[in-house]
Please model this.
Amino acid sequence: MAKKPWQGRFGEPTHEKVEDFTESVSLDKRLYMEDILGSIAHAKMLGKIGILKGDELDKVITGLESIGRDIEEGRFYFDKTLEDVHMNIEAELTRRIGDAGKKLHTARSRNDQVATDLRLYLKREIHDIRTLLVDFMRIIMDVAEDNLDIVIPGMTHLQHAQPVLLSHHLMAYFEMFARDHQRLGELLQRVNISPLGSAALAGSSYPIDRWMTAMELGFKEPSRNSVDGVSDRDFAIEFVAASAICMMHLSRLTEELIVWNSQEFSFIELPDSYATGSSIMPQKKNPDVPELVRGKTGRVYGNLVALLTLMKALPLAYNRDMQEDKGPVFDTVDTMKSCIGIMTGLLPGIRFRKDTIMEALDKGFITATDIADYLVRKGETFRDAHRITGELVAYLVSTAKTLDTLDMNDYKRFSPRFEDDVFNCVDPVSSVDLKLTYGGTSRKNVFDAIQRARAFLDDLNHDS
Ligand code: ARG
Model:
């Protein structure tokens, strides 16, 4: 069992059960690179203020770098009796370079160290997740562009409402993921703060330079209050909250794919390579990938509630409870990356079944609103037009006729304003093309929206 840095005050060794219960290294070893970078920055600053002398700084840096390589290549043994990644690395550094290693923790505590590591880690992961989101948005946009000729029944209450372009429907998801991308970018400014030098909670009596370490690590600035610096986890909660919203968007998309893939809808066919079979029913081709994305949404919601509950009513400043933040944060990162990644792979392989979509458009009197609008254009008030069209639909239901098979004499029985040109607006494509208002579903609008989306993504690429 390794000797703990804080062993001095204790008369007997830690109980083995307590070692197991309190360790966090099995999870937080994931932070090793950030821990090493944080320590190098801290060491450089200690060098500048004369605490690390002569060749000590070089030794610390070389030692930390060699530990980093060993961990990277799987040659490092993490000892759970040393609790966490911070003590494991520090103990190994001292073993490798001697006394200089023991100076590293001057003017620092694991409380500011762990907060620094987690912030550095999240900065990197948020950047990666945003890049994945951009790839995904590009795929959504491409699929929308390739299918501009498909009109689907737009729904409200999961009932046929009005025809919309499939591309318009897909671009609605583009908007959601663009907001997720933006949200993650905005919260980054609150992640991008350096708590290093807050020490245990009070700050330090050594003349440390917190701006230097903050700049060295690429943070915008040091945290303004040392108590807040070590006890704040808002940045982690915000990240998980933004992820929960993003997963909610993914779950809506996947739910639609699952429904569209059902025999009842048959709007799409999933690629074989992204579907799975049943071990008992040979005919089955199941949408397990979208189902799992929908299911994993629950994990991320759970992670958010776990973090909020963890932090609820915690007195200032650091409390050991906060060690429990790692699981939900790491799990959220993993879930987000795998879900966005798999959906980016799945989407381009979906085949939209124009035949069944067209059949579906014939049901549900989907252009009834266009008929009412037609009557308004012919001089009717909207309320009367609505009533007349309602009566017309009731008649169609009772006679099993449709708007396009009804003959002109029948139309005239409901309103003398009907003329032959009514047949133009019972056609779903004409209906779509009439929706020329900004943000509406006409082919012209949607084409323009896709061009704007492309320019937006190209701009993002230039920025990063
Ligand atoms: N393992 C701890 C965590 O992840 C590091 C900080 C420990 N600080 C302390 N005072 N025990 O939160």
Q: What stands out?
A: The chain has a mean pLDDT of 95. The longest strand covers residues 159-165. The pocket of arginine is lined by residues 24, 28, 83-84, 110-111, 114, 318, 320, 322-323 (CB under 6 Å). The chain has 20 helices and six strands.
